[in-house]
Amino acid sequence: MTIQSKQPSDIRSAVPPVERPSAKAHVIRTDAEAIAVAEKLAAEFAKDASRRDRERLWPTEELDAFSQSGLWSINVPKAYGGPELSYVTLSKVITIISAADPSLGQIPQNHLGVVAAIRTVSDEAQKKLLFAEVLSGTRFGNAFSEFGSKRAADFETKFVDAGDHVVVHGQKFYSSGALLAHLVPIVALDDEGRAWYAIADRGAPGLTVIDDWSSFGQKTTLSGTVLLDNVKVPKTHLVPGYKGYDRPTADGAIFQIIQAAVDLGIAKAAIDETVDFVRTKSRAWIDSGVDHAWQDPYTIQAIGDLRLRANAAEAVLEKAGLAVDRAVADPNEKTVAEAQIAVAESKILTTEIAINATNKLFELAGTRSTLAEHNLDRHWRNARTHTLHDPVRWKYAILGNYYLNDVNPPFHAWS
């Protein structure tokens, strides 16, 4: 696809909102259709992925195609006109897209998580209203995390009640998707310290999105700073997100499983790049006694190891998707803990294979793979950046405490 937009010349300038789609989005009906649509889109997204990374070009046209394809509404319940597909399928979709371009794979993460939260915590009127928005093609961004707080779950952004609406004031960072979103869910606290999603219009007065995301990886996730200067949000769009964590629900596991799927996609792309480079560009080592790099026994062993570990990570991710499906269908202390544990296991394995595969790429492909013309370092940069979400050293602790001491994981969006 062609690339039509790039960052403003002044990185501190406010980015204007985008228009909503003129046509309704497609609604996908089956798991097989979702996979087929994802594979077709991924083939297009992969074409300019390296250029977008190199030049930090916004994937404007690609994002429109993605959200209009129906893949952004696949977890809307059938009772409200949605497909309500399996989280196994949703994870596969994100993996497929992320293998082509992990920035595009990450952008809908919070959108899909908020859709799941609406199912869990909203009343009927709000579900009908917001699910209709999603099915029409509306994209949710996010304004969740804050830059200067002591911990990720510490929020200073608050809202005050103003009758039929609330007024939000604060500042956010790491706001993936916010630049080109249509609606921006804002995590804000009420006067009791409870966290809500205040879903503001992207063009609401006082809501400013600044293009200042400067990470060396995941460069085009359309993230940045969100300034909230007395932003009005109608109460129809005020979602009680805290209710998803005051009792056992799958909400946290859903946010997490999408992260794991992004990392698996990065790993798969890196392994494919390694195989292609070794077979077409790398030279055999002088002591190997073979004519081609792909005949090197140590390289053969290493590729086998990478594929094995990627396959294991994919199998555990599928297991986690099934556990999430059970927790969504019957949320209770047991099913939710099982989903959290399975997702934590998948997060560990997908993180480790993403880091390992993107590092091994250069070891196996050789020095010429580091040439700037190939831009293969984007895979490592993306893996290193994205896997910093929710550190896996804490996942190991959660697993050990569960299996050794029968302690269930905590309830929050990072577990």
UniProtKB/TrEMBL annotation:
GO molecular function: oxidoreductase activity
Record-linked Gene3D superfamilies: Acyl-CoA dehydrogenase/oxidase, N-terminal domain (1.10.540.10), Butyryl-CoA Dehydrogenase, subunit A, domain 2 (2.40.110.10), Butyryl-CoA Dehydrogenase, subunit A, domain 3 (1.20.140.10)
Keyword match S-adenosyl-L-methionine: no
Enzyme Commission number(s) from the entry: 1.-.-.-
Residue ranges of domain Acyl-CoA dehydrogenase/oxidase N-terminal in the record: 37-137
Region (Disordered): 1-23
Statement: the UniProt record of this protein carries the keyword Magnesium: no
Pfam families: Acyl-CoA_dh_2 (PF08028), Acyl-CoA_dh_N (PF02771)
Polar residues bias spans: 1-10
Keywords: Oxidoreductase
Positions of the Acyl-CoA dehydrogenase C-terminal domain: 257-390
Name of this chain's protein: SfnB family sulfur acquisition oxidoreductase
Phylogenetic placement of the source organism: Bacteria, Pseudomonadati, Pseudomonadota, Alphaproteobacteria, Hyphomicrobiales
